[in-house]
Amino acid sequence: xxxxxxxxxxxxxxxxxxxxxxxxxxxxxxxxxxxxxxxxxxxxxxxxxxxxxxxxxxxxxxxxxxxxxxxxxxxxxxxxxxxxxxxxxxxxxxxxxxxxxxxxxxxxxxxxxxxxxxxxxxxxxxxxxxxxxxxxxxxxxxxxxxxxxxxxxxxxxxxxxxxxxxxxxxxxxxxxxxxxxxxxxxxxxxxxxxxxxxxxxxxxxxxxxxxxxxxxxxxxxxxxxxxxxxxxxxxxxxxxxxxxxxxxxxxxxxxxxxxxxxxxxxxxxxxxxxxxxxxxxxxxxxxxxxxxxxxxxxxxxxxxxxxxxxxxxxxxx
Amino acid sequence: xxxxxxxxxxxxxxxxxxxxxxxxxxxxxxxxxxxxxxxxxxxxxxxxxxxxxxxxxxxxxxxxxxxxxxxxxxxxxxxxxxxxxxxxxxxxxxxxxxxxxxxxxxxxxxxxxxxxxxxxxxxxxxxxxxxxxxxxxxxxxxxxxxxxxxxxxxxxxxxxxxxxxxxxxxxxxxxxxxxxxxxxxxxxxxxxxxxxxxxxxxxxxxxxxxxxxxxxxxxxxxxxxxxxxxxxxxxxxxxxxxxxxxxxxxxxxxxxxxxxxxxxxxx
Lengths: 317, 267
Ligand SMILES: Nc1ncnc2c1ncn2[C@@H]1O[C@H](COP(=O)(O)OP(=O)(O)OP(=O)(O)O)[C@@H](O)[C@H]1O
Ligand SMILES: [Mg+2]
Fold this sequence. Notes:
The complex is a heterodimer of chains A (317) and B (267).
Chain A: H1 11-16, H2 24-65, H3 70-73, H4 86-117, H5 122-134, H6 139-153, H7 155-158, H8 163-187, H9 191-198, H10 204-233, H11 236-240, H12 256-260, H13 267-275, H14 280-316
Chain B: E1 12-23, E2 26-37, E3 41-46, H1 52-59, E4 69-77, E5 80-81, H2 89-95, E6 96-99, H3 110-120, H4 127-137, H5 141-144, H6 157-170, E7 175-179, H7 187-200, E8 205-209, H8 213-219, E9 222-228, E10 238-245, H9 246-251, H10 256-262
Parallel strand pairs in B: 2-10, 3-8, 3-9, 6-7, 7-8
Antiparallel strand pairs in B: 1-2, 1-4, 4-5, 9-10
The complex binds adenosine-5'-triphosphate (ATP) and magnesium ion.
């Protein structure tokens, strides 16, 4: 920070107007104070992150890379040295795909409807408030709901504590987030674009499809991917609906329905299971699993950023 | 209050009868009566907030996109009641085009901006040809013919506004509404657009809102002057104070408020 030497440029003029007390030195001091406080906040956040990551990396790295990629391709085991994360990793991918499949069309569709089509009635306002509230409901509540609905009532379809039930649960969980993100992205599209469309004899759907959605798409994509990253880190609702902690098989891909109805586990649950064991070898396994989970998350966020930049570039061409 | 009846010997495109517009409970415009003659440029003038844009938006039913707005009275468009339940607003806007105060091209290529309304309205002929024709009509072709694939937002403000005019012209509207189309432009772009409006008036019927008295007197044949009542509560409503040929409004207005306004002595 360069120290600015206060210098009164308009000495005569300011002297004439005693009502104005510019007091620049005092204001610059406040500036510097605030900057320092903000910098400190950033440093604290970074330090915590570095410590966490460092700890995990140091503990997990050796396990992850002994006989690579054994850790990724082995099933969990009672013996720590042979235990791997194949089934939780595959389970996480299954859930991710299913959640995306259920939540994206519904959430984006609902967002478009509420923002672009629904009249601004009392009912619409009520729905809006409730969606906002839903986004803040603790995830375990969704687990309780899902346990009753997806696992018990819908058992003939979902097969009980299955991948399908898990996907539906997480879809429910991220649905409000996707709706809110979609609406935010749509709201950011200037209304002059809509007016331009309407003034040319375009129907509402054409305006939305051809002009509003392309502009809102990067925002919707980013919001959606961030919502999905939240989904794959979730543990509580999946434990509630009874995801297992020890799975030594993979859901079959064909017939698909059988895969959908198989029991499953996911990375956070496996990690939790290992962490709660006393043996240090399992602690190492847990750390290695966390590295994998974080890598998946980073990849997803990178995709979100990539997609956002790319769509922005297309628009600027 | 006596309105000078416009002496019009051409066909009437649009006639407004007892039109009042509310935004919620707020009366923005009261009891407007006027008719827009074919192949004329009609200018709407008047101080800020007297309801010129409001009236303009009513003429192609853009006003109903505003939440809480209500339109009372009647607008007759070539013999049909514009607000009849059987009339489709999408069809109305296809016939009655609009150019906005701020240029609002789609963030797509220059070509696509013009081709879009052409395609969406089911044009059967050669789209490329019509795009070129529309750009020529809007006096923009020479400046953009080598960069049709470029994003429209890369154009200057004046070029963007002419692009928006070209876009509106592309679907051959019957009537063109322009809401202060030059207010964001420099004098040279303004002159070009004024010239353009004069050319277009050979073929099109145009209604233009403007704050620029010279512009109104230069480009229009008919002028409507709007004013705001001021009641004790301070919440006046807009009304049509005087309507007549531009020449008469500027040289021999029937009302003092009109005289004050057009000569720059407002208030
Ligand atoms: N969307 C709206 N919601 C509520 N009130 C509005 C809306 N648009 C306009 N009004 C009100 O209606 C009145 C007329 O507005 P309008 O925009 O038609 O004026 P104008 O004559 O076009 O003014 P200007 O010359 O500044 O553009 C104003 O008092 C304005 O506050
Ligand atoms: Mg206006």
